[in-house]
Amino acid sequence: MLSNLKPQPADKILHITQLFRADPRAEKVDLGVGVYKDATGHTPVMRAVRAAEKRLAETQPTKAYTALAGDPAYLLAMAKLVLGRDRPLDRIAAAATPGGTGALHQALELARAATPGATLWIPEPTWPNHPSIARHLGIAHRGYRYFDTETGEVDEAGLLADLAGVAEGDIVLLHGCCHNPTGANPTAALWDRIADLLLERKAVALVDIAYQGFGDGIEEDAAATRLLVSRLPEVLIAASCSKNFGLYRDRAGIVFAVAADSAARDLAQDNLAALNRVNYSFAPDHGARIVTMILEDKDLRADWEAELRDVRDGMLALREQLAAALRTATNSDRFDFVARHRGMFSRLGLTQAEVLRLRAEFAIYMVDDSRFNVAGLNAESVPRLASAVAEVLREATVA
Ligand SMILES: Cc1ncc(COP(=O)(O)O)c(C=O)c1O
């Protein structure tokens, strides 16, 4: 039986990590996988997480099962974090999931059960797991233009033109903030136009918010998601605590289904719990409980917010430094967008051949499409990356 299986394509991003590990050069720089790293290249356990885990170990009375949809306190704390003070609680169904990936999976399964024929619209480019999950679930999907490689900004005209073709009931996937892989994000005015369009086309928004707090701030990064919830009758949201709480391997995530009214909310809640049951019965609780403790405790929360602010400010400073270094090294403003982008990634707009040269000649590893992890840089590697990019471009011009 097992010999009938087909080999699976290697994950392109995780493959870069393997190549990086196998590279013996001491000066190598890993800008591949999407994990936050501090200036020493380490992915720390956040202070508040450590404190909450200690407290939990000492006080947790049981590890018996929680509710099928997850601990109600977690669902409420996350609704406050993602959807803010004015959240329409009577319209919100929610379920704990294994990370943001689990939330995306459950959101798409819910959508497939509700409207089996709907098409999922995905930005081009996007996180590669989006089309993979859709394909796995047998959901038809197509791309909409998102990124202008010339300017390094969102292709507003292309996006609006493509989304004008969305059919009633279709699902439109949007990155709530910190677009992965480009780092380019819609302006507030464009978010408004997107909301208008979805309302007019009677489409459902699916917001993937995996980097809340990594862009401009915890509240600022949730603004687009909250706008869509305030304007549209139905919104699906997949949120991840992997990055902003540094809980990658603990798999804390949540899916929200914002319904048009409370009766539809009850149906969605019932279905989300049933989907959890058939997929994994109960979502992991440890990370979710840590998140709840941090969000609900004044001191832990203040410390988490302070550390998250440092993480964000560090990435913003690296963006500024890299944009300035590239400006000097290439004697052009071609890469100024790096400073305007937000989140952990930007795309440099290099060809695959140029990316491969960075890897072979300079031991600098980024994804083939020239996406790089800003947090993989530090004061020493910023000028090295800038001069390597200039070198690769200079030789491309000469050739
Ligand atoms: C855009 C996007 N969505 C969702 C996720 C899911 O993260 P996780 O399943 O680790 O919580 C990621 C992780 O890299 C991501 O980049």
UniProtKB/TrEMBL annotation:
The cofactor named in the record is: pyridoxal 5'-phosphate
Query: What sequence ranges are listed for the domain Aminotransferase class I/classII large?
Result: 27-388
Per its UniProt record, what SUPFAM superfamilies does this chain match?
PLP-dependent transferases
Q: Does the keyword Transmembrane apply?
A: no
Q: Which Gene3D superfamilies match?
A: Aspartate Aminotransferase, domain 1, Type I PLP-dependent aspartate aminotransferase-like (Major domain)
Entry keyword Transferase:
yes
Got a GO cellular component term for this one? cytosol
UniProt keywords, alphabetically: Aminotransferase, Pyridoxal phosphate, Transferase
The UniProt GO MF terms for this protein read: identical protein binding; L-aspartate:2-oxoglutarate aminotransferase activity; L-tyrosine-2-oxoglutarate transaminase activity; pyridoxal phosphate binding
Q: Which InterPro entries match?
A: Aminotransferase_I/II_large, Asp_trans, NHTrfase_class1_PyrdxlP-BS, PyrdxlP-dep_Trfase, PyrdxlP-dep_Trfase_major, PyrdxlP-dep_Trfase_small
Q: Name one Pfam family in it.
A: Aminotran_1_2
EC number from the UniProt entry: 2.6.1.-
Q: Output one GO BP term.
A: L-phenylalanine biosynthetic process from chorismate via phenylpyruvate
PANTHER family attached to this UniProt entry: ASPARTATE AMINOTRANSFERASE (PTHR11879), ASPARTATE AMINOTRANSFERASE, MITOCHONDRIAL (PTHR11879:SF22)
Give the family per the record. Answer: Belongs to the class-I pyridoxal-phosphate-dependent aminotransferase family.
**Matches recorded under NCBIfam families:** PRK09257.1
Q: How does it assemble?
A: Homodimer.
What is the protein name stated in its UniProt record? Aminotransferase
